[in-house]
Amino acid sequence: xxxxxxxxxxxxxxxxxxxxxxxxxxxxxxxxxxxxxxxxxxxxxxxxxxxxxxxxxxxxxxxxxxxxxxxxxxxxxxxxxxxxxxxxxxxxxxxxxxxxxxxxxxxxxxxxxxxxxxxxxxxxxxxxxxxxxxxxxxxxxxxxxxxxxxxxxxxxxxxxxxxxxxxxxxxxxx
Length: 174
Hints:
The protein is of the alpha+beta class. It is built from six helices and four strands, in the order H-H-H-H-E-E-E-E-H-H. The chain has helices at residues 3-19, 30-44, 47-56, 63-73, 136-153, 157-173, and strands spanning 76-85, 88-95, 100-108, 114-123. Helix 5 packs antiparallel against helix 6 (157-173).
């Protein structure tokens, strides 16, 4: 990364941090900073900002996909932080239509942090989401059960092993 590019990106992140919304306080962690950046970029609907975000923070996204999603949902507002760790956030947010979404963001630490996974699950109107908390032993049993079932029954064994490996890697990070 050249010094000029680093300065441009740092200026971009400072702009995002300063102009971020006054919603629920987001943690000052790599995950919180990344969510703050995503909200500023996504909520703006500005193609140039979205292009910069995709190029530097979340290469798995597409500019067209994010802009299309923005045209359907408008801006998001974070309602609550369900859990917070330096590289992982679970949170609820609401779009302009009033749809509540439960989301989970995992980032890789770096300069800047980059998105590893960003999952959003809309909650249907009238539904009451259940927040299940598993202790470490229960979590391990659930993951082993899923891995065992995938290994035994999945149609393509090679893909089953890839999913088991990814599941175990993800569970070791959270």
